[in-house]
Design brief:
With 128 residues, this protein is of the alpha+beta class. It has one domain. It has four helices and seven strands, in the order E-H-E-E-E-H-E-H-E-E-H. The protein has a seven-stranded antiparallel β-sheet, with helices on one face. Strand 6 and strand 7 form a beta hairpin.
Length: 128
């Protein structure tokens, strides 16, 4: 599994995240995560990262989160082969709640919004 991050200025709950995910299936909502199956045995995991979890980020990443005013941070785990299916779901999430998607690159150097999320597949291929 690989990870990318969804960042939003809005304070969101797992129930909130599940709403736009329903366009692609039936999400399983937990206290701190949401799972969405895209195949019989394969799913994407949208895991909420609390303030304490952010301590594991590089200083430049923590500074970027603060600069952007991020209230909700999700680690999205996925298999690379599923990325083409995941991209429209991330786009829908950003249409509903705004925010950005960032690579797990140690810097959050590139941010993708709902208009540019289609480029993620190209950029991800270059960085992995």
């Amino acid at each position: 599994m690989e990870d990318i991050f969804y960042l939003s200025r809005r304070q969101l709950s797992p129930a909130d995240i599940a709403v736009p995910l329903r366009t692609a299936g039936t999400p399983r909502v937990f206290a701190d995560s949401v799972q969405l199956f895209y195949d019989r045995d394969e799913f994407w995991d949208f895991c909420f990262m609390s303030g304490g979890d952010r301590g594991g980020f590089e200083p430049v990443q923590r500074a970027k989160l603060e600069e952007l005013g991020v209230s909700t941070l999700l680690c999205v785990s996925f298999h690379v082969a599923s990325l083409p299916k995941l991209i429209p779901i991330l786009g829908n999430l950003m249409i509903h709640y705004g925010g950005w998607v960032a690579l797990d690159d140690g810097e959050f150097a590139r941010l993708y919004d709902s208009a540019s999320i289609g480029q993620l597949i190209l950029e991800y291929g270059r960085s992995s």
